[in-house]
Amino acid sequence: MRFPLALTVKIASHIVKHKIARTPKFAMVLQLEPLHTCNLTCTGCGRIREYSTNLKDMVPLEQCLGAATECDAPMVSICGGEPLIYPKIEELIAGLHEQGRVIYVCTNGVFMRKKMRDYLSAVYTPAMEPKLQRLLKEQLITEKEAEAIRKAEGAAKTKVVIRPSKWMYWNVHVDGLEYTHDLIVEREGVFKECIAAIKMAKILGYQTATNTTVYKETDVQELEDMFKYLSSLEVDGHTISPGYDYDAAKKDMAKRLGRDPKEFFLTREMTRQKFAKIQEWGKMFTIFGTPVYQEFLAGKRELTCTAWAIPTYNVRGWKAPCYLMTDGHYGGYQEMLGNVKWENYGVVDGKARDPRCENCMVHCGYDPSGALGTNYQAGDNWKNFAYNFGSKPKPVAASVELEKRAYNGTTIGKGHLAEAKAAINSPRAAMNGAQSVFQRKGHHDHDEAGLDTTQRDEVLAKLDAAKKTEVKAE
Ligand code: SF4
Ligand code: SF4
């Protein structure tokens, strides 16, 4: 089967229950944002710009669990911010397990290996040595880390940890192959870390998925190569959604990067071009999302937005009308359902009911429409059934060629900072003081691996100044 039977049955029975009860609007997936703090500053991320990223602004654990109970969505996607920074993430996942939810932990992947080492420390017995040896052989843990896992005792043994489960997916943010991904997350080395985390997760038996946002600059062939590579790692599924010019991201783009959002985000027409092959990909790879939504993305039909089915809960309450757009926050899910004028949103028959919805085709607005039978066409139920219960696409065979195509960035000296580094290391740039800026490290809450965006921006500004000086001198 394409997806685990227990999961498919759980979701299908939730829909049937509400259809029988004729519930007009109900939740399918809760987007739970326990915090908005993040260790990255990705281009296009509205979250870290729209909300406070202060660690003090967090949703308490009980409130997170209460939100899941309140809307009763069978699936909970824990996002943010970076959810692995949430101090009670293990307890949150454990609590959602107890409630019987399907859990997606949407992460940028940077702290995943740390969390899996915590798991190994808690459960290690000599019988696990072969797994540890494999992790060592594939350089996914160091000798020192392996020793710490073997010798763990006390609190490390009793700590609540994130265990592999058929009800939980790591959902790793991957926006392209190495060069593109690191460019979008504005930091080199992140793609490599994501892949290491995915490999480690697969060895340890975690279900592992990826989520990809497609931008104007995303190359379609690269997406296919990315899916092939991820398939060769036996990743269990992929969410793919178009990035469009929603308010917060648009403002950030113009203000911080001085770029016109039109250069970066997709219009409806462009989305349809980018997603022309989505149905083909659906056959080749385990793409999450109904075939009806895939037809919509490919421009073969229209759907009406059902954003109420994927509500977002965060530090300010229930966010309306949708994950991307904010017109208000409510104290309760039912209160939000009752008060929001849903008929004012979405695109119907090609006409945007709200100008901000014009280019939106995102999965959190339209994927549930495919599952819930909105804009039903004859044969849709059968299509959805055949897709979910059909056989899982076979993994693509791993190959050196695929690996080479995947590592097309900093690993081969083609990182997006490479040009800056080269110039800064040149004697003339050094004279202009660029080198000292580049060398300054670690004053933000990032690890030692690289520069943060502020530093990068400073470096590029210096670089620009250095170039102008060179031109004048010539
Ligand atoms: S990883 Fe990137 S997209 Fe995700 S919350 Fe952090 S900055 Fe935003
Ligand atoms: S179409 Fe729906 S999901 Fe998209 S921006 Fe509008 S309300 Fe939000």
Overview of the molecule:
The chain has helices at 5-20, 47-50, 61-71, 89-98, 112-123, 129-137, 143-150, 155-158, 178-184, 190-204, 220-232, 247-256, 268-274, 278-284, 291-297, 333-339, 363-372, 380-389, 400-406, 418-424, 427-431, 434-439, 453-473, and strands at 29-32, 75-78, 102-107, 168-173, 207-214, 237-242, 312-314, 317-321, 326-330, 347-348, 351-352. It folds into 2 domains: 5-389, TIM Barrel; 416-473, no CATH class. The strands form 2 sheets. Strands 6-5-4-3-2-1-7-8-9 form a 9-stranded mixed β-sheet. It contains 23 helices and 11 strands. The protein is globular, with a radius of gyration of 23 Å. Helix 15 (291-297) packs across helix 17 (363-372). The model is unreliable at 429-456 (pLDDT under 50). With 474 residues, the protein is of the alpha/beta class. The longest helix has 21 residues, at 453-473. Helices cover 45% and strands 11% of the residues. It starts with a helix and ends with a helix. The protein binds iron/sulfur cluster (SF4) (2 copies).
